[in-house]
Amino acid sequence: MKSFYGTQLSNPLMLGTAQYPSPAILEQAFRDSGAGVATVSLRRESGAGQTFWQMICELGVLILPNTAGCHTVKEAVTTAHMAREVFDTKWIKLELIGHTDSLQPDVFQLVEAARILTEDGFHVFPYTTDDLIVGERLLAAGCEVLMPWGAPIGSGRGLNNEYALRAMRAEFPDVPLVVDAGIGLPSHAAQAMELGYDAVLLNTAVARAGDPAAMARAMMLAIEAGQLADLVDPIEARDMAEPSTPVIGKAFLS
Amino acid sequence: MKIVLNGEPREVCAEILSDLLVECGFSGRVATAVNEGFVPAGLRIAHKLADGDRVEVVAPMQGG
Predict the structure, then answer these.
(1) What ipTM did this prediction achieve?
(2) CATH superfamily entry for domain A13-232
């Protein structure tokens, strides 16, 4: 498995911490899935922050703070600095939102913010689209990981453009790639791993499921299955049938 | 002095950022910004506040 800025993940599931019915269920989802990374955010302190921090520490996973909700380079850079201090990590999931309805990344500002943050010593995980040229620009800006969307955040639509994600994998064979956002079902997560992606980042599909802990486990099993399948050279699809049972030696009975 | 703390207008006695955090009961892991600029923890003790400053105090929160 590829390393993320020199760190090996214990497994390829990056799990969000928002929208769970209760903190206990959130904790159970992490325990049952064994997710290796937790995404977190910063919000105005209203008293709940310190309890949440304590719980996250007890999970014993790697922490990936985000810049969710930021619409400008300045906002995202300031948020990243605050996150580095609070969470004591160089990792930052860089989100620069460009569109209110689709939450599509503003890739122009994303590249600029990625450059500034990399120069400031951050390890940037950019939430991007599946555009190859943007991917190249992000790498040139210093990113060592790319996180293209599968579909809009929270939509659960799966991999909207498998062709583009496949092309991205082929274009950047040595770069750790993460499908971030849009996953709704374990089959979507398995598909991402079958394409050769290195990890999957998801939140809503687990947190909003009827049984989040069980869904987290289902996602992990699917990710493991997809990852294993990718490693063992799957067959090519074909148009016509090909009998799997030997034709020679069949008894003559008609 | 009148400031805006996390979006709410406040009348406070503190004139230094670190004192403001104590006065308003913030502790633990928080990060601060004044007038949209990050103020690292180590510089709070030297950061003088002015009337009308916009102060943000943020803490860990759930995120995706």
Answers:
(1) 0.95
(2) Aldolase class I (3.20.20.70)
